[in-house]
Design goal:
The protein has 208 residues and is of the alpha/beta class. 34% of the residues lie in helices and 24% in strands. The protein has 2 domains: 106 residues, 3-Layer(aba) Sandwich (Rossmann fold), CATH 3.40.50.170; 97 residues, Rossmann fold (3-Layer(aba) Sandwich). The chain has 6 helices and 9 strands, in the order E-H-E-H-E-H-E-H-E-H-E-E-H-E-E. It has a 7-stranded mixed β-sheet, sandwiched between helices.
Length: 208
């Protein structure tokens, strides 16, 4: 690419399948971001192993040992900033990030959520949707604000609920959709194509 690729940090707590989708996208020549570091709150998380397997630096910051959430958030932000991170992706990161963290990145934090927000925010969204009897589920990439899954929506993909589904089958199909839309949304973000108008996000294909 003619322009330098934007340095991105990813935070993950678990197996890191969305992280893997981002790493795979970033490994292609035409992707506008590069994953420069992956962090976790859980030592030994599979997400860290995925990153290390692709030569990406990792770090762990545990909540235990920090006097407050603010101190913890500041420690995580410090690690990311030390690697030159400009944008942050939350990929199964099981911590709510607070103002201390969000202030460090000035509206440059993305999250992936396994529902069509604003429906079913919070934990276990796929099961919530399945048990509610929805006919269409899906996933959302959104900018992170101080609420829980309340930030402006960048991208969504609908996933139909099939007659033979159980909660696990639905979860896996939603996960496949997450892997498709998260790299796309990150590419828009780092290429400065997001235009926020109130709560609406418009994708400016001209970008920078």
């Amino acid at each position: 690419m003619s322009q330098a690729r934007v340095p991105v940090g990813v935070l993950a707590s678990g197996s890191g399948t969305n992280l893997q989708a981002l790493l795979d996208a970033a490994a292609t020549d035409d992707f506008p971001a590069r994953i420069v570091v992956v962090g976790s709150d859980r030592p030994g998380a599979l997400a860290l192993q995925r990153a290390e397997g692709m030569g990406v630096p990792t770090f762990t910051v545990r909540r235990k040992g920090h006097a407050s959430r603010e101190d913890f958030d500041a420690a995580v932000a410090h690690q990311l900033l030390a690697h030159g991170v400009r944008w942050v992706c939350l990929a199964g990161y099981m911590r709510i990030v607070g103002p201390t963290f969000l202030d460090a990145f000035e509206g440059r934090v993305l999250n992936i959520h396994p529902s069509l927000l604003p429906a079913f925010p919070g934990l276990d969204a796929q099961r919530q949707a399945f048990e509610h009897g929805v006919k269409v589920a899906g996933c959302t990439v959104h900018l992170v604000d101080a609420g829980t899954d309340t930030g402006p929506i960048v991208a969504q993909e609908a996933v139909p609920v099939l007659d033979g589904d159980d909660a696990e089958a639905l979860r896996l199909r939603i996960l496949a959709a997450e892997h498709r839309i998260y790299p796309r949304a990150l590419a828009w973000a780092v290429a400065d194509k997001l235009r926020i108008e109130g709560r609406k996000v418009r994708i400016d294909e001209e970008g920078r």
